[in-house]
Amino acid sequence: MKHTPPSVFAALRGLALGLAVLPAVSLATAPATVQAQALNPAQLVQAELRPGWRTEHGTHMAALHLRLADGWKTYWRIPGEAGIAPRLDWSGSQNVASVTTHWPRPIVFDQNGFRSIGYDGELVLPLEFTPTRGGRPMALSAQITIGVCRDTCVPVDLSLSLPLRDAGAHDPLIATALSQRAEPGAGAGLTQAICRVEPGARGVELTLRATLPQLGAREHMVMELPGTGYWVSDSQTRREGGELVGRARVRAPQQGTVSIQRSEVTFTILTDTRMVVHQGCTGG
Question: What is residue 154's three-state secondary structure?
């Protein structure tokens, strides 16, 4: 397997690593779109894979490291009302059985009147690789699409590869990102989560009431139904005393029927300083 150095841009290392920019997604005006299409992606983002270290469990903790130009942002796994959800494809890797992505806490920001969720300036995304054959080298190969945004949103395709031949060494940047992972709801004082499902004009309306102390400024709830393929809108979030209330619309693909299993409802609460996650709710 051919291995390339961590950096992915020809302008940075003189290497052709398959970077391409798709047409810009306009979030503002037509002139802004034309300007975005003319941007050189090497001026917007630099990317590399950080090799990291082998863990005591036999997995390998590496990371995707993105550095963005001033004023530009990229997106969390759920981008919010406006943005491009990242796609990471590791199918070309060797001796890799599975990959666990450990997302650090993102920020919630306004983007031309829409609420988005992502990272400003830099993202270190820890990636934990489980080998197919333990103790043997791994060869990472990824095809990644991210959105980088300011006034407009530009999808960028990245091709990255990296050999993991030895145990590696502790990386403070990766360790810091791991410390910003979501904490469980119970540890944050969550005592109850109640869901109410009501018919809506298109799909259903899902209201979730989480009983927990205030976690910080600008609390925002993100609801998901993992594995269902359902579209879930960005939540309207409000605080009612000891309860944080989120309300979202849920639609099935191709206008199908929505059937929600409350045990599968997952919600994440974001603030300026914390990220809390919980799965499951009861009826009420």
Answer: strand
- The domain locations on the chain are 10-178, 183-283
Tell me how far CA of residue 253 lies from CA of 138, 215, 250, 264, 266, in angstroms: 37, 34, 10, 18, 19
Per-residue pLDDT tens digits for 133-177: 998 999 999 999 999 998 888 899 999 999 999 999 999 999 999
Q: Which fold has domain 10-178?
A: Immunoglobulin-like (2.60.40)
**What angle is formed at CA 152 by the lines to CA 149 and CA 158, rounded to 5 degrees?**
50
Q: What is the pTM of this model?
A: 0.84
Strands 45-54, 138-149: pairing kind? unpaired
Rounded-to-integer distance, Cα 72 and Cα 67, Å? 10
Q: What is the CATH T-level fold of the domain 183-283, as seen in this structure?
A: Immunoglobulin-like (2.60.40)
Chain position carrying tokens 């059937």:
259
Kind plus residue range of the DSSP H or E element containing 246: strand 243-251
User: Residue 117 and residue 111: Cα distance in Å, rounded?
Assistant: 10
